[in-house]
Amino acid sequence: MDMQKMELNMEFNNEVQRTMEDFIRIFCAEKQELAAQRIANEADDRQIAKLEKIGIPVEGRSAGAVAAEMMEDIYSYRSRLNHPRYFGFIPGPASMVSWLGDVMTTAYNLHCATWATSPAASCIERELIGWLCAQAGFGEKSGGVFVSGGSMANLTALTAARDAKLSEEQQYLGVAYVSDQTHSSVAKGLRVIGIPNSRIRKVPVDSRFRMDMKQLEAAIEADIAAGLMPFVVIASAGTTNTGSIDRLPEIATLCRSYNMWMHVDGAYGASVLLSKKYKHLLTGIEFADSISWDAHKWLFQTYGCGMVLVKDKANLLNSFHVHPEYLRDVEARQDQVNYGGMGIELTRPARSLKLWLTLQVMGSAALGEAIEHGFQLAEWAEDELNKQQDWEIISSAQLAIVNFRYAPSGFTDQQIDELNRKISEAILADGYAGIYTTELAGKKVLRICAIHPEATEDDMRSSIRLLDKYAHELCQPALV
């Protein structure tokens, strides 16, 4: 029996090795040809039906056979968010270094709730959180924790904000302030912590899609007069739609005046802190009480890797530290950190290690330059748009995002909206570039978010020219 187990283990080990070698071979070959591939490979009804028929077997199957099946029938059907011309949503051009760090960390399966169970990984997380806090301009009392992404980071920070500014008896009076461009995860998080939609104020934005300061203060004053308790303003550092940055210094001043918590949703834009050229755009973020930041966006990490940073780490401990009897043997000393007590998750992976590996291999300067390249990509796209007729820039290039639409004369607003929707569908069906629509100021527009460090000027200009080609084809009266 022992011999049989040894043979099975050896067979499994050999299959694992073959699978890894196959993946690296396929990945490297795909990477070389990525720019020539379609941006998505959709699974049709036949493929979905094939997957549904597999079921769960009573007896196990060969690991190698199942792995090969997964690579052929599951992993190959996806939108290639790592494609240099995938410009939808916030793309995911994860670096190979991050992938390696993810594989290594998963292989060792570290439990990163306590210093005792993972002292070295906890030390790296502490050091990396300290370095990130320093980039944001936070002081010695600051801290934070790695989480799955922006949604969890926002939820974590908003919980700390609620507990810092409202007693349990006051929570039913708490009011939060967002803009009409704030990411949807913020409202979701507010509802989770007990702030209903009726006490979430959606403040209009100005012509640059930043929170309108006069209307923000007016809303705060009105709520105070109504006997409510304004407790948090959520500012954006790089909105998803336009890359806009709210007036951070002014919001900080307002929050101090009304004794409110200032949270900055920097899930996308906080990475600009690593750019020497553009870091000044985030002036004022150092006044925030908390910041959310996603490494799997503009720091080129595999999913999921987010961070929440706070000016005073005592606020996270106040909200999340627990002391059950089964954890008393692993209480941390003063110079240690049990990260399971600084956020919602107790069982948690060592998410920091892949970012740490990336920074060690690339260096922070190279990472900053890769971020700066995104700014240039969006500027090339806008420049090419200005060379074409009948294209309208709705939000100029900022933080690697530009919004625009095809708006020829003689068409109604409704027809122009429908036309731009069809232009997006056409380029997606073509497979050359991933460009989707969003809505700004009541208009349906096309949006480009270009952060891939290997995307080129030709990628940007060719994508715009292809959009223009489809726009003219779709302008035929019979098709509109």
What is the element layout, followed by pairings?
Elements: H1 2-33, H2 45-52, H3 63-75, H4 96-108, H5 119-136, E1 143-147, H6 150-165, E2 174-179, H7 184-192, E3 200-203, H8 213-225, E4 229-236, H9 248-257, E5 261-265, E6 290-294, H10 295-298, E7 306-310, H11 314-320, H12 352-362, H13 364-387, E8 391-398, E9 401-406, H14 413-430, E10 436-440, E11 443-449, H15 457-474
Parallel strand pairs: 2-3, 2-4, 4-5, 5-6
Antiparallel strand pairs: 1-7, 6-7, 8-9, 9-11, 10-11
Helix content: 40-55%
* Individual helix count: 15
Regions with pLDDT < 50 over 5+ consecutive residues? none
Instruction: Identify the strand order in the major beta sheet.
Output: 1-7-6-5-4-2-3
User: How widely separated are the two ends?
Assistant: 72 Å
Name the average pLDDT: 93
The major β-sheet equals: 7 strands, mixed
What is the oligomeric state here? Answer: single chain
Query: Any idea what the shape is?
Result: globular
H and E string? HHHHHEHEHEHEHEEHEHHHEEHEEH
Overall number of domains? 2
Q: Provide the structure class.
A: alpha/beta
- The overall strand count is 11
> What is the name of the CATH class of the largest domain?
Alpha Beta
Residue share in β-strands: 5-15%
Q: State Rg.
A: 25 Å
Q: Mind telling me the CATH superfamily name of the largest domain? A: Type I PLP-dependent aspartate aminotransferase-like (Major domain)
User: In CATH terms, what is the architecture of the largest domain?
Assistant: 3-Layer(aba) Sandwich
What is the CATH topology of the largest domain? Aspartate Aminotransferase, domain 2
